[in-house]
Amino acid sequence: MHSIEKNLAQIRLQIEQAASEYNRDSHNISLLAVSKKKLPADLRNAYSCGQRDFGENFLQEAQAKMRDLSDLDIIWHFIGPVQSNKTRALAESFDWVHCVDRLKIARRLSDQRPESMPPLNICIQVNIDLETSKSGVAPDGIVAIAEAICNLPKIRLRGLMAIPAQQSRFELQREPFAKMRQALHDLQQRGLDCDTLSMGMSHDMRAAIAEGSTLVRIGTAIFGERL
Fold first, then answer.
1. Which of 17, 55, 125, 157 could form a disulfide with 101 if both were Cys (CB 3.0 to 4.6 A apart)?
2. What are phi and psi of 50, to 5 degrees?
3. DSSP-derived pairing of the beta strands 53-56 and 120-125
């Protein structure tokens, strides 16, 4: 078994085990393969093993891969910082954008999404631990930006994403994810059609799944160390 195939099988098993442990349906937890700085051949290998969702951080690198892999029906996620000068390319090329933290960015993505394409799926990035080194909406600002985004015509607000401060203890890892789960629930209670919690990476995936993650972002554990 090739290493990517073996790694994917192992990650999928870990997702199933964590889902079972916390009474979740593993079918409701998507695996996003973080493929930045990986060769198109690596993505093609993962695709051949059934992987469909790939996350890219750098626009130009992603666009080159899209050209090389245009024969595959990949679901492309942009998971890097979103700058105003990148919104048109993102709106024209991607299926998902995960790091929207300003209404201005959401408006640009909506205005620039081609009419021929389905609505662009987006997640609001939340700075759940209020870290000065990270971007994101503060927890008390989620409702206002979410309600405004839901009025935009060519994007669909799917939910929330976060990268909490790293913690080594499992119970401490769960705390910010629990806050994210409650934040999504609050949006749903207000009638917003949100279904996604994009949270959890290799080191805290189990804690994220315990608290309701619907999409985990895994890179090195699938593809190996980056170049």
1. 125
2. 100, 0
3. unpaired
CATH label of the domain that carries residue 86:
3.20.20.10
Q: What is the pLDDT of residues 22-44, one digit of tens each?
A: 999 999 999 999 999 999 999 99
Whether the pLDDT of residue 159 is over 80: the answer is yes
Q: How many domains does the chain have?
A: 1
Length, in residues, of the chain: 227
**Cβ–Cβ < 8 Å for 82, 123:** no
- DSSP output for the chain: --HHHHHHHHHHHHHHHHHHHTT--GGG-EEEEE-TT--HHHHHHHHHTT--EEEES-HHHHHHHHHHTTTS--EEEE-S---GGGHHHHHHH-SEEEEE--HHHHHHHHHHS-TTSPPEEEEEEB-TT--TTS-SB-GGGHHHHHHHHTT-SSEEEEEEE--PPP-SSHHHHHHHHHHHHHHHHHHHHTT----EEE---TTTHHHHHHTT-SEEEE-HHHH-S--
Of residues 205, 133, 110, 1, the one with CA closest to residue 219: 205
Q: 58 with 65: CB under 8 angstroms?
A: no
For residue 87, pLDDT over 70 is answered with yes
Cα–Cα dist 176/63, whole Å:
33
Give this prediction's pTM: 0.96
Residue 222 contacts residue 49 (beta carbons within 8 Å): no
Residue 110 belongs to what domain range?
Answer: 3-223
